[in-house]
UniProtKB/TrEMBL annotation:
SMART domains, A to Z: FCD, HTH_GNTR
Lineage top rank: taxon: Bacteria
Name this polypeptide is given: GntR family transcriptional regulator
Gene Ontology terms for molecular function: DNA binding; DNA-binding transcription factor activity
Keyword Aminoacyl-tRNA synthetase: no
Keyword vocabulary terms for this entry: DNA-binding, Transcription, Transcription regulation
Start and end residues of each HTH gntR-type domain: 4-71
Matching PANTHER family: GLUCONATE OPERON TRANSCRIPTIONAL REPRESSOR (PTHR43537:SF24), TRANSCRIPTIONAL REGULATOR, GNTR FAMILY (PTHR43537)
Organism: Pseudonocardia endophytica
Length: 209
């Protein structure tokens, strides 16, 4: 395999293992270990590690490899504040056009049904992906392409935070689904203030416990 293609594969697979929680924060990785697992030389793995360090997912340790970086508490708060502002603004914009609400609600219910399909303790990464898709559907309902693009840049952080927060707890999985259902009902009612309050409680209850 040419080195650029090998480096891309090492990058994609290692990043996936970090985002899914397979590689927990604090885990030490060596270039040799990853190279052996993927059947390639160390050079493309080194390039992959450099990219992941730039994305603040790994921290390089000279002559040892790299360690998986935890989501900093301050950054987690920043992500949650941004999500609350963007999602609330999306609903505020949506309800200005009442005729658009039924279609948006249908999209949210479909996203919630998809998340319910992954409500299993051993399928937390798929559940986290579906969770992000549900909240992304809220943003999309607002019809603001600019904030939609910005919101997508938060996806990797959201996924890591959700996998860590839920940690396979069936009771907490059920709570998240119930709160999502409540958010859909509020969107349908057009009550922006109630949505903002419920969303803040949902995000705080999920990530600031």
């Amino acid at each position: 395999m040419p080195e650029p293609a090998a480096a891309e594969r090492a990058y994609a697979l290692t990043k996936e293992r970090v985002l899914s929680g397979e590689l927990a924060a604090g885990r030490l990785l060596s270039e040799g270990e990853v190279a052996e697992q993927l059947g390639m030389s160390r050079t493309p793995v080194r390039e992959a590690f450099l990219r992941l360090e730039a994305e603040e997912l790994l921290s390089l340790i000279p002559k040892r490899g790299a360690v998986v970086v935890p989501v900093p508490p301050g950054e987690a708060d920043d992500v949650l504040d941004a999500r609350e502002a963007i999602e609330t603004a999306a609903v505020r914009r949506l309800v200005r056009t009442p005729a658009a609400v039924p279609a948006a609600v249908a999209e949210l219910r479909a996203a919630l049904d998809e998340q319910r399909e992954h409500a299993l303790p051993d399928d937390m990464d798929a559940f986290a992906r579906a969770d992000e898709a549900f909240h992304r559907a809220i943003v999309a309902a607002g019809g603001n392409a600019l904030t939609g693009r910005f919101y997508r840049t938060l996806a990797d952080r959201q996924r890591r935070m959700t996998v860590r927060a839920i940690d396979g707890d069936p009771r907490f999985i059920a709570q998240v689904l119930d709160e999502h259902a409540e958010l859909v009902t509020i969107v349908e009612s057009g009550d922006v203030a109630a949505f903002e309050t419920a969303l803040r409680a949902h995000l705080d209850g999920t990530h600031r416990r």
